[in-house]
Specification:
The protein is mostly beta strands. It has helices at 24-31, 78-84, 97-102, and strands at residues 36-37, 39-44, 49-54, 57-61, 66-72, 86-91, 116-118, 124-126, 131-143, 146-157, 166-169, 172-175.
């Protein structure tokens, strides 16, 4: 393990700005040690609908109810979300691993190929998702090669029965409690 601090350094001393740039691959590997849930973000107006697999999701605030997602600046979903002014965060179950992979590449599944329905506000929701959050786009921020989208939660759905969530850890889709066996990547 690499040291995280220098002996004698005060907690309040700014970091030395002279440093070696962090390699993107090394950052990705390090972040792979943080287990995340797996979501498919969906959006559209019924004419142009799309979805993409995302694990960069977080709850931001309860009052008001805000969440954020990050989409690559070249994501085919980004202009769809911007046009629809909203998106749905669909939390996936372990049984939906194939759905996660289907929406994860540059050439992804078409939303028409996956069971879905319309939310109260007309956005597409994956019908078999563990839970979902329907969001109104409230702000967009520059995040380097990604756009950071802040959404106000205006609707939600939770499971009627207990399901196992799909998680992402060290480059592989997994089930909670699953060890390193079955690693894919």
């Amino acid at each position: 393990m690499l040291p995280t601090s220098q002996a004698g350094r005060s907690r309040h001393t700014p970091m030395d700005v002279r440093h070696t740039p962090i390699d993107g691959r090394a950052l990705r590997t390090a972040c792979g040690y943080f287990a995340t849930g797996v979501t498919v973000i969906t959006s559209g107006n019924g004419v142009e609908d799309a979805g993409t697999t995302v694990n960069s999701f977080t709850s931001v605030s309860l009052e008001p109810p805000l969440v954020l997602i990050c989409l690559h600046e070249k994501s085919r979903l980004l202009p769809v979300v911007q046009d629809a002014r909203g998106f749905v965060v669909n939390f996936l179950t372990k049984q939906q691993e194939s759905v996660a992979w289907a929406f994860s590449g540059r050439q992804t599944a078409r939303l028409e190929e996956i069971p879905h329905h319309r939310s109260a506000h007309g956005l597409p929701v994956l019908s078999e998702a563990l839970a979902h959050l329907e969001c109104r786009l409230s702000a967009e921020y520059d995040g380097g090669d990604h756009s950071i989208l802040l959404g106000e939660v205006v609707g939600l759905g939770t499971p009627e029965s207990e399901e196992h969530p799909l998680i992402f850890f060290q480059g592989a889709m997994r089930e909670l409690g699953e060890g390193r066996a079955g690693r894919r990547g």
